[in-house]
């Protein structure tokens, strides 16, 4: 699966819908064997980016290349498997029939029985597709995306509707795919999945690449830490909100949770108020808090 060209290459790609610029000068590249999470708030341009990558839409400017060629040519060659939110599954056919068709159409197919087992749908192979639950339908879409030996697997919100056990099994399979040298690109709203699974995290905001790095690097980019504690006596809320370097605060009963860009200085000032915190904890932001901090800061700059 080695290749001299990047698996995915966006070069100054833009796409607009009337006055809305869904993708704005996007430049990025993906390498073989990476598991990459694509994050962003609603309207950030994630779905449009995936549509451009798969050749479902054409950019207004810039170029999109997969393995050094056009998206269409890469897909016709069987180098790309995709699991999208848009588009339905065929009705009045069984899961096995649909998977068999996908294998027949792929230039480098796997055996249908292997595909059914890997996707966890072998037990429902004889069930009609229109009788599936939401989670079962997602697993069938995954089966179709991995019906053949593709080098790039693109997943749009892949675990929506799956229960916890199925999600864990799904991501174990995806890690196996990446370990075999395939590139896995997935868009998700489950930030804990991105934190646990992705080698690399891309944060889109208004069609632009706002952050690019490992989950740890994204957390560090937020430049804040979490401070939580309990107060035994009365809470002087105005004084707490005036603490230095605060980027966020939540007060629930006698529990205070703070985000600070300089936790040491904030805690020092807290004691300076005469507050004696109990169960004091200082920790780094999780990926979800870092994501919110980064996008909120960008929103404030654009006002």
UniProtKB/TrEMBL annotation:
BP GO annotations: response to antibiotic
A GO molecular-function descriptor: ATP hydrolysis activity
Ranges where the ABC transporter domain occurs: 8-231
Nucleotide-binding listed as a keyword: yes
Main location: membrane
Membrane topology: Peripheral membrane protein
Localization terms from the record: Cell membrane
Keyword annotations of the record: Antibiotic resistance, ATP-binding, Nucleotide-binding, Transport
Keyword Disulfide bond: no
Signal peptide residue numbers: none
Species of provenance: Streptomyces collinus
One GO location term (cellular component): plasma membrane
Record-linked SUPFAM superfamilies: P-loop containing nucleoside triphosphate hydrolases
Protein name as catalogued: ABC-2 type transport system ATP-binding protein
Source organism superkingdom: Bacteria
Matching CDD domains: ABC_DR_subfamily_A (cd03230)
């Amino acid at each position: 699966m080695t290749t001299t060209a990047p698996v995915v290459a966006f070069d100054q790609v833009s796409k607009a819908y009337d006055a809305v610029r869904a993708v704005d000068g996007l430049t990025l590249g993906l390498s073989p064997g990476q598991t990459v999470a694509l994050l962003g708030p609603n309207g950030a341009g994630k779905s449009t980016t995936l549509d451009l990558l798969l050749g479902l839409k054409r950019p207004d400017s810039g170029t999109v290349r997969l393995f050094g060629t056009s998206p269409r040519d890469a897909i016709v060659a069987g180098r790309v498997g995709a699991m999208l939110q848009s588009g339905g599954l065929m009705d009045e056919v069984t899961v096995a029939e649909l998977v068999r068709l996908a294998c027949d159409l792929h230039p480098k197919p796997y055996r249908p029985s292997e595909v059914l087992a890997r996707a966890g749908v072998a037990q429902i192979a004889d069930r009609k597709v229109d009788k599936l639950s939401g989670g079962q339908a997602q697993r069938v879409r995954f089966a179709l995306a991995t019906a053949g030996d593709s080098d790039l697997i693109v997943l749009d919100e892949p675990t929506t509707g799956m229960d916890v056990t199925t999600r864990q099994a799904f991501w174990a399979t995806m890690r196996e795919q990446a370990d075999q040298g395939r590139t896995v690109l997935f868009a998700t709203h489950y930030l804990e999945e991105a934190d646990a699974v992705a080698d690399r995290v891309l944060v889109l905001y208004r069609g632009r690449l706002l952050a690019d790095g490992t989950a740890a690097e994204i957390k560090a980019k937020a430049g804040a830490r979490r401070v939580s504690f309990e107060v035994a006596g009365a809470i002087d809320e105005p004084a707490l909100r005036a603490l230095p370097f605060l980027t966020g605060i939540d007060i629930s009963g006698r529990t205070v949770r703070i985000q600070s860009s300089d936790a040491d200085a904030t805690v020092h000032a807290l004691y300076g108020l005469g507050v004696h915190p109990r169960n004091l904890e200082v920790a780094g932001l999780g990926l979800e808090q870092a994501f919110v901090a980064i996008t909120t800061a960008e929103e404030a700059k654009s006002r």
